[in-house]
Hints:
The chain is built from 15 helices and 10 strands. It is of the alpha/beta class. It has one domain (8-44, 101-399): Aldolase class I (TIM Barrel, Alpha-Beta Barrel), CATH 3.20.20.70.
Amino acid sequence: xxxxxxxxxxxxxxxxxxxxxxxxxxxxxxxxxxxxxxxxxxxxxxxxxxxxxxxxxxxxxxxxxxxxxxxxxxxxxxxxxxxxxxxxxxxxxxxxxxxxxxxxxxxxxxxxxxxxxxxxxxxxxxxxxxxxxxxxxxxxxxxxxxxxxxxxxxxxxxxxxxxxxxxxxxxxxxxxxxxxxxxxxxxxxxxxxxxxxxxxxxxxxxxxxxxxxxxxxxxxxxxxxxxxxxxxxxxxxxxxxxxxxxxxxxxxxxxxxxxxxxxxxxxxxxxxxxxxxxxxxxxxxxxxxxxxxxxxxxxxxxxxxxxxxxxxxxxxxxxxxxxxxxxxxxxxxxxxxxxxxxxxxxxxxxxxxxxxxxxxxxxxxxxxxxxxxxxxxxxxxxxxxxxxxxxxxxxxxxxxxxxxxxx
Length: 407
């Protein structure tokens, strides 16, 4: 397992990154142009996949026979498979497992601070330390939002925020303990691997002890926040101050060893190639293999980068997103659940994902701030609206909890 005992003093000071209001540096302009050319070429290859590559069709035959495919074959499907044939193969797998049922969740994504020393280049939400528009919610304010969530029928809170330099582990322990004391039925599905590492560093702890203490205070499970693309070439470009790929996976491995369940995610559409998307999937699949059945990752959740107010190019198309979702269902054969997105892709694409391998449509999200900060002013769903979307797509909606148990 990756050594996860590094402290704050061990971290090399990175080159400063401009705040959201600052002009992009010349180096970033060059990176953007280079990667746009690469992704344009990728897009042309994927769009040419209309009738499908015969080699990709042979891979789909192996998928239909129930065989596990290799990463290079997944790249071939992503770039060259006939679109509808790819969807049918993914749909057959999800229907064999889940029939006509599609699940959803009622939860609240509560951001406790926008102050962050990581300053990712794609993020429009963060503010530097001491920024006049920086804020941190008090425990009382956070508990009030948890109470509102429970009153609205919610079963989970996802508490996430920036990497605040002054918040050590005792701040989170007190918060989680209060949530469990006042709202014992609420699941605390919170803090991604980068936050865990940051809390460990600020507190002078290693990652396993940090996880153990947070779990004892009330942390139930860990979301896959901060995965972006699990390829260091990409991470160095879009989030150079964030933990690297091996460290992200190491946090998840440490969580799995302690019996803490997690989710895997992907933010697609910055500067990565199809091969790098598949490399990301392969790293997740390998880690889940080591976790075994009934442990490790509960679900894989891909979503699209929102470029409205930040540095990189065009949003991934719904077509590209559905191809990725279908390949995820096929390739991640050790993941039970694949979640489609309506928040970043829209209702129509969200419905179509249910025919391309998705068995879950995520949450109605009583609150969401990060995607909105990027300029995606979508409407948060109601139970009625999300259930209607699922029915209109030809499926039976079912509310679930964090463990994907129907309630």
